[in-house]
Amino acid sequence: MNVMTLPEQPASGFRVDVSRGQRIGRVSSEWFARPDDERYLSLPDLYDAVRTRAERAQARTVESRAIRVEASRDDSERLALMVPGREAPITPTHWSFGQLCTLVGAPTSYLRQLPAALSAINLQHGLLSHRAELVKTLEADNGRVELRAVTGPDYGRIWDKELIAAVMKIAGNGTGDTRWKVPGVLDWSTMTHNPSVEVTKDTTTLYASDRDVFLFLVDDTNPIEAGRLPDGSPDLYFRGFYSWNSEVGSKTLGIASFYLRAVCMNRNLWGVENFEEITIRHSKFAAQRFAHEAAPALTRFANSSPAPFVAGIKAARERIVARTDEDRESFLRKNGFSKSETSKIIETVLGEEARKPESIFDFVQGITAFARAKAHQDGRLELEGKAKRLMERAA
Hints:
This protein has helices at 26-33, 43-55, 94-104, 108-113, 116-128, 160-171, 286-303, 307-318, 325-334, 339-353, 360-372, 377-394; strands at 14-15, 22-24, 39-40, 57-63, 68-71, 79-82, 91-92, 134-141, 145-151, 185-187, 192-194, 206-208, 213-228, 234-245, 253-260, 262-263, 269-280.
């Protein structure tokens, strides 16, 4: 079996088998949740948006005891903060208000329900008794000065624009000037993945809100053949990755890379194999870790050969571990599966392949297919973790 990049894309797309591997819904969750004003049609557009807001922002470390909380004297029921170094009041956003409450140990949902004057008194008390003494603010001037974020003094900010800039180095505009692009769509009627889909607000996978960024790109014009399906046709994969960040502290920075067989219209990832993830908390040395760990890892994956992945699939297909029912049950039980799980995994392979599992690859595919039927995420992740460890043993 050889690493194979098909020279030409069939007019109807690439035929794929999505009954294998994992189904991952992370991108689909983002796709469902994002309103139109958080959807971007190219990486340069996304970068310009996050760069502009970063240029309007100023990060400072101030004494928490020196912050004064005031309630508006009109009917707006707003809070404002008087912060050292600024003459004008700063208005907290919905997000930064919650962060401020958490920092001083105040119940956020309760304070949101109080009249502004009472909420201000409670927050002021919390700030005066704040044991850490210092807070880091992120203030943005958009006509009026807003408090975008308030964190502990050791918060290590990685700007959203830094992540997008790192992605643009390997993916260009994200719409086709390099091999990395917004994904195409799986046609369920023909089971073909069509990479040639116009990037619109409905199809884009480039997102940014006032508190985060998320993007998903694939190399779906250059399929990789890793073995054959039962009918003799090639088992095709594409490379993909997604990344996320929040410069205001709503989530970590992360990069996930993987091989997948298709992306549907709802942006579910189908037939995922070899999923790897890097996360970086926004702690004191986060920026250095991004520069020396995450960004280079992204570049390595983008430029890497798929040969090790294909070799791993080949090894798993060729390694026969069971030829009898007794062998099958013994193999699964020794690898941590219950008696009930063992029988269901074997039945799953029999139903999908019209034969019982024999190789490591057969068992891994049966386990991941069984995992997809689990209603609870914890159960799915546990099974998928076991499947991944089996695959790694075969490599």
